[in-house]
Amino acid sequence: MASSRAEEDLGNVPEELAVEEKFHARGNQGGRGRGGGRGRGGKGGGRGGRGLDREVVISKALSKLLRHAANDAGIKLDAEGYAPLDQVMKYRPIQSLNITFSDIQHAVQDNAKQRFSMKPNPAISPPPPSSSTDPGDWVIRANQGHSIAVSAAALLKPITLSSDNIPDTVVHGTYYSFYDSILASGGLKCMSRTHIHLSTGLPEGTKTGGSGVISGMRNDAELLIYIDIRKNLADGGTNWWVSDNGVILTEGDETGVLSTKYWKKVVGRKEAECGVLWEDGIKVADLPAALKNRKPPFGKHRAQVKGKGKKGAAEAVGAMENGDALDASVNALEITDKI
């Protein structure tokens, strides 16, 4: 099933979580972790079988609820995107995983991309002690990546020309097979997400094409699109934000697009494989034909697109593009996005 590279949130696709729950159930049937010991996470050894798989499942379940499904689950997010933890733990897919308070703490504190934040419930007076393990004493949120409506001003910090938080590097990671459709749409798009996601650097091992972790970019991105954020801010008409875990976010212009004219540079993550395609807002080369049809690494969408037909497959594949999740509502022309 999933490897540790699969920890990227796959958005609001119920089938994906269902598959993971089945895998978790198998792992709990007497499964043992490495070295033969019982794993963390309740009955039957939660980490049994495949190392970090239980942690991946927990991260995905939390992401699905807090980023995409809270409204459907009847859980109200506050202005900052926080949900009562006791209600979160009663959400059926999470409850079915036998997730404990300790599991939640681990998901918040140890997640490589720091996707979640947790704090004492502000509705409780006097404030609960920091040592409390009562879920009712806490609230939790996803730091970014929402498809449900949240207040950017309450959830995120603004980036402006007058602020001191303009990053030196703003880069979006994508895949060769999506590049032509991005060009055809005029730039990067929010798609079904609230924002376009970008990072302030590259995953470790980029010079060799290796894997690594940085918030705002998939570890196995093949193509790097560098953005001239200062030029975009000077032109106006676009809001920029930074999340608590360092992801750079924008809604794009009034049409939801971050135009190609702000592309400072587009280059392959492995420069020997793909040189510079775009520089200072001007196209300088085409993507080599041999790379256009390369499938995205690790077959991310094979399970989701099977049996959906041409349009459904295009939607599922296109859903990867913008940085952090698999979102099914997409424009057919863009591989009709997030990573």
Automatic annotation (TrEMBL):
Alphabetically ordered keywords of this record: NAD, Transferase
Organism in which the protein naturally occurs: Venustampulla echinocandica
Protein family membership: Belongs to the KptA/TPT1 family.
Summarizing the function annotation, the protein's role is: Catalyzes the last step of tRNA splicing, the transfer of the splice junction 2'-phosphate from ligated tRNA to NAD to produce ADP-ribose 1''-2'' cyclic phosphate.
Reaction it catalyzes: 2'-phospho-[ligated tRNA] + NAD(+) = mature tRNA + ADP-alpha-D-ribose 1'',2''-cyclic phosphate + nicotinamide
Q: Where is this region: Disordered?
A: 1-52, 117-138
The protein's GO terms of the molecular function aspect are: tRNA 2'-phosphotransferase activity
Query: EC number(s) per UniProt?
Result: 2.7.1.160
Q: What is the official name of this protein in its record? A: 2'-phosphotransferase
Q: Which Gene3D superfamilies match?
A: 3.20.170.30, RNA 2'-phosphotransferase, Tpt1/KptA family, N-terminal domain
Q: Which InterPro entries match?
A: Ptrans_KptA/Tpt1, RNA_2'-PTrans_C, RNA_2'-PTrans_N
Keyword Membrane, does the record have it?
A: no
Domain of life from the UniProt record: Eukaryota
Pfam families assigned: PTS_2-RNA
Picking any one GO biological process from the record gives: tRNA splicing, via endonucleolytic cleavage and ligation
